[in-house]
Amino acid sequence: MTATDAPLQQHSIDWQTGRVQAIVTETSRVKSIILQPARWSGHWPGQHVDIRLTADDGYQAERSYSIASPPEEQLLTLTVERVEDGEVSPYLLDELRVGDALEFRGPIGRYFIWNQTRGGPICLVAGGTGITPLMAMLRHRKMSRPNIPASLIYSARSLADVVYWDELDTMARGDLNLRLVYTLTREHPSDWNGHLGRVNEVLLAENSFTREQNPTFFICGPAGFVESISSMLVKLGFDPFTVKTERFGPTGA
What we know:
There is one protein chain. The chain is α/β, with parallel strands linked by helices. The protein is built from 5 helices and 12 strands. Strands 4-3-6-1-2-5 form a 6-stranded antiparallel beta sheet. α3 (165-173) links the parallel β8 (150-156) and β9 (178-184).
């Protein structure tokens, strides 16, 4: 199914069981879980699913995870970061095995979405694992219309914390219409010649598009990060209605 075909209409989001096909270690704190849904009507880049775990005594815990895979793929990829003392992420990272069943429902979300029919340019700004839904957009863009101008500004604590590092670099090397900018906020290699520190107005102005190009912004990360970037974009003169945001924060995940 292509993104053009992907249904945005309201559909059932009943719980279902998917089978784990693979688990990929992305960083020391992050893994991607590749899931075969029992049934799937398609999704749009930017949507998420809910995962539900049920203990032997009937206790249940639910958490939301963004979909990292593009709609062109039949398997769902969910990228999960460890939350210390969390109820769900430690199980997903430490206990879940290939072949296990996982209860989930989705896709969910109708606001923080993009597909190639909406055109561009698009400017994606990620903080930490906020890259996940943006990666679904980039993967979809690559598989559909890679000529749509796009930029990704990705803030991480260190190079080791950059999720999808190899894939992003490969994607950018072969795509003149994709600008990829990293900024490291805590640690950096001695030979690092990229940006350092938090995303600021100068970095945004130099690596997004002009107001005349009317870009759409997608920002995902911790709440404070998202609010800061949104405020800077408005201060730079961008229309607030072109700025779409997705926040995550301490949830006990």
